[in-house]
Amino acid sequence: MTAGPQLQVRPGQPPVVAEFVESSFEVVRAKRWVGTGSFHVTGLSDRDPLHKLPVVEQLEAALYTDALVTLAPTRTLPPK
Fold first, then answer.
1. Residue in 11, 20, 15 with CA at minimum distance from that of residue 73
2. How far apart are CA 80 and CA 78, in angstroms?
3. First CA to last CA across the chain, in angstroms?
4. Closest alpha carbon to 24 in 80, 71, 76, 78
5. Percent of the chain with pLDDT over 70
6. DSSP 3-state helix, strand, coil percentages of the chain (rounded to 5)?
7. Which three-class secondary structure state does DSSP give residue 66?
8. In angstroms, rounded to a whole number, what is the distance separating the alpha carbons of residues 48 and 40?
9. CA angle, corner 2, sides to 30 and 28, nearest 5?
10. How far apart are CA 61 and CA 51, in angstroms?
11. Mean pLDDT across the chain, nearest whole number?
């Protein structure tokens, strides 16, 4: 399974590096529960207006417990 691009930020002394990194996400083992989910945003703020975006489509929800996963970078995406 390949996850979408992730933003990787390396703070510290200048220069600060921020880059998009494509990653692979593999579930090695886990207990998986599936069902109808719901979406709720906490901490409503005008500075971060995520709560104002409409829900386009509600998808199946999954909960993984006792999971062993591998998340690894596959490539760094070039800046545009």
1. 20
2. 6
3. 25
4. 71
5. 88
6. 5, 60, 40
7. strand
8. 15
9. 20
10. 19
11. 82
